[in-house]
């Protein structure tokens, strides 16, 4: 179990590294970029800015904390061994925004202990600060926007809620009648890290994700929790929402392997307690039985 002194040391390092990654991204922003695509049809772009930030973070973490593991969106884990402490990084979250000149992106750093986020840092650009800002938190130590502590009120206070959802969210979720016309002002900003940072600041009242990866969610999740918000995760087997516990493939307390962290993804609602509880009570995940039937039929046809 990490001590308070160790957590403070790791948090300070995460803040410094997030700021360093942000400086790298700003040097590439609006400049010429080399772009590759990880998926067909020009989906999942990756740029030399991603790689430069990733190389910097890998090098610094390995130098400062050689006993810790590293999982990154841009690089597969070197081995499948389990490590008590794992750094989970997204060197450039919101790549599509970035390469199109939209200043909604970020560098995300989280540290997991036995799969539980214990340190988080998010660098994001900011119109009032040329070098951007870093939001950060450690377990039990509160959440901060630079040096200002963050507090999320439990209730909306009478205002119309503002939220972010995935694109095509109407296809991803089932909705109870109680939610009709009560979702508030819905946005999709193109960067989970940017959205989670705004939820931790109280700008967004809640955020909803389906199938988000560990490097997207971990840092912002801790920020929201430490600021007084909540995070509920959907369990597909029980079809219920419950408080998020840890990045784990089987729900156990054992340290996940780096490969398991790399492959984990979940469905969550995060933010202001009253908004999160209201929304989670009225949404579910469709079964997609017809889609699964078509996939199985296609496999059988190919085999025959």
- What is the element string, with H for helices and E for strands? HEEHEEHEEEEEEHEEHEHEEHEHEH
Helical segment tally? 9
Strand tally is: 17
Gyration radius, rounded: 19 Å
Q: Which shape, going by the Cα principal axes?
A: globular
User: Mean pLDDT, rounded to whole units?
Assistant: 88
Going by CATH, what is the homologous superfamily of the largest domain? Fructose-1,6-Bisphosphatase, subunit A, domain 1
Strand content: 25-35%
- The CATH topology of the largest domain is Fructose-1,6-Bisphosphatase, Chain A, domain 1
Summarize the amount of helix as a percent range: 25-40%
Largest sheet: 7 strands, mixed
Number of domains: 2
- The first-level CATH class name of the largest domain: Alpha Beta
- Per CATH, the architecture of the largest domain is 2-Layer Sandwich
Notes on the structure:
The structure is a single chain. With 304 residues, this protein is of the alpha+beta class. It has two domains: 4-149, Fructose-1,6-Bisphosphatase, Chain A, domain 1; 162-289, D-Maltodextrin-Binding Protein, domain 2. Helices cover 34% and strands 31% of the residues. It has helices spanning 4-28, 48-64, 95-99, 169-172, 192-200, 214-226, 258-263, 273-280, 289-303; strands at residues 35-39, 43-47, 69-72, 85-93, 106-113, 116-126, 129-138, 142-145, 148-149, 162-164, 174-175, 185-187, 206-213, 230-235, 240-243, 265-271, 283-284. The strands form four sheets. The chain has a seven-stranded mixed β-sheet with strand order 3-4-5-6-7-8-9, sandwiched between helices. Strands 12-10-13-16-14-15 form a six-stranded mixed β-sheet. It has a two-stranded antiparallel sheet with strand order 1-2. Strand 7 and strand 8 (142-145) form a beta hairpin. The longest helix has 25 residues, at 4-28. It is globular, with a radius of gyration of 19 Å. The mean pLDDT is 88.
